[in-house]
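Re: duplicated header lines in exported structure tokens

Our pipeline writes sequence and tokens for each protein into one text file. With two proteins the header for the second block appears twice in some exports. Here is an export where it did not happen, for reference. First protein block:
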Amino acid sequence: MTPLEVALNGALAGALGALALTLMILVVRRLTLPRREPGHERGHAAMTLADILAEGPDSPPDFIGATATFVQKLATGLFGVSLTRQQQLWAGMGWHLLYGAFWAVPYALLQASVTVPNLLLGPAYGVLVWLVGPVWLVPKMRLMLPVRSQRAWVALMVFAGHLSYGALVALTFAVLQALTSR
């Protein structure tokens, strides 16, 4: 396979891995957070940084809310546009899938170039994504509490989610490689 084909398979695997991680987070948040008033999540007011960070150290991070806030920062800072809550959520979901795809391209190129088993390299790469994203970059952007400010179970859940992302990317990439190399 050409490097471009490998990279495209990696991007697709990464987007699917990010989607799976997002769905896992939604399920965990639904099971662990108290019920909110009806309509709270669907309000028309745009999400703010206070909405995202107000949950505290006992709450699983709101990745959808964080990415929604991030795209609002981009829209405001680069284009002088304010998005509605619905636009923020959809654009944030798109951003998260692109972010997952972006991270999986170097993984795919690495996996196609070395003989390390994908079930070792994938989770290890997921740890790298966790270190750069939730440990360093996302708290610096004030979109999530720093790991040291979270409860241990919350930090462990985010870590496990990124291990899962790496494993899902590795497995999906292996399947895509097998399908496209025929």
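Second protein block, exported in the same file:
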Amino acid sequence: MAGRSALRAALAAAGWDGAHALLPGEQGRPDLPHGFTGSVTHKDGQALAIARRSTGTQTLGIDSEVLGTRERLTIARKVLTPEELARWGQTSSWPALLQSFSLKEAIYKALHPHVPRYIGFDEAHIDPALRITMTLREGEGPFELTGWWWWEGADGPSRRLVSICAVRPV
């Protein structure tokens, strides 16, 4: 409910007139109004959304994570490619791992309109300069991906990470 409200607000800020209901679409994702792209995320009682008028075939994805009190470093082998894992292993930082996890979640949300299937974490590679390379198992693409992330709040367990990805077929 909060996610849909956040999405309605983001769509309205992007110029949507609100004339049509935001109904659940494929796999529960919101069916966005024609002429708009957007994404929604919710975590620990906060819902966030991003939306804009469509410009061609570009799509957006958003994810949010909370730092928390429990470091789950064991997810590294599931989330990171071998090259990412080797680089991350130099610090084994929970915030750095969470950044990769969150940005990959945003990537998958942004890619879903173009690639409507489960995409494994190993199909996306993020380099230190935030350049994203996709190696999609079924050969979809190519895509141009741009990602961003930032931290909100003071240091501590309630610190929130927000990640956004824009995807455009090339």
